[in-house]
Amino acid sequence: MTSSARTRRRKGNQILEMSLMIVPLFGLLFGIVDFAFAIFIRGTMEHAVREGTRYAATYRLKPAKCQAESIKLVVQESSLGFLTGSNADKIKVRFFNPEEDAVSGNFDEISVGGNRPGNIVEVAVENYLYNWMVPLYWGSDPMKISVRAADRLEGLAAGAAPPCL
Predict the structure, then answer these.
(1) Is residue 157 part of a domain?
(2) DSSP assignment of 26-58, as one string?
């Protein structure tokens, strides 16, 4: 056999071996990037709800907005654009009265006048869907991300009333 025939056969083997190695390597690489991005989105959502909770405790308002709407805007601004458009509906703001809930044993949401001092505000992002970039191992079902943060509303200045809910 001539040396040129051996060289051609070796080049063919190299191409075949490289193609057999590159497919799983890229699959692993994209899987790592995909999973890291999902973790990044969850961390961003956690940061956004914490910022919304801190904002709620101060009783500040955005111009021409009530407190719940202002809190939702702060969460949207802190979410790096992930909670815009149709995803804005996934932001929830709830108020609870810890004294009444401890007595009754039920944690019922307060819909009217819930933003009084001493109550608990809970800011949540519920069922944010993250579609995998590479649905190999995880399948084609999107990942649901839900995060929440809560804090007690502090007192208001003497004689001040809570803002509109």
Answers:
(1) no
(2) HHHHHHHHHHHHHHHHHHHHHHHHHHHHHHHHT
Q: Is 9 left (phi over 0), alpha (psi -120 to 50) or beta?
A: alpha
Q: Is residue 14 part of a domain?
A: yes
- 158 in a structural domain: no
Domain extent at residue 118:
3-152
The DSSP bridge partners found for residue 120 are: 96, 152
Alpha-carbon distance 134 to 114, whole Å?
Answer: 44
The residues pairing with 124 across neighbouring beta strands, listed in sequence order, are 92, 148
- Count Cβ atoms below 10 Å from residue 94 Cβ, excluding itself: 18
H helix intervals, the chain: 3-57, 67-78, 98-104
The C-alpha atoms of residue 27 and residue 32 are separated, in whole angstroms, by 9
| % of the chain surpassing 70 pLDDT | 87
Taking the model in full, what pTM does it have? Answer: 0.81
Question: pLDDT (tens digit, 9 = 90+) per residue, 133-148?
Answer: 876 666 778 889 999 9
Pairing label, strands 143-152, 120-130: antiparallel
Q: Is residue 117 one of the residues assigned to a domain?
A: yes
* Domains contained in the chain, number: 1
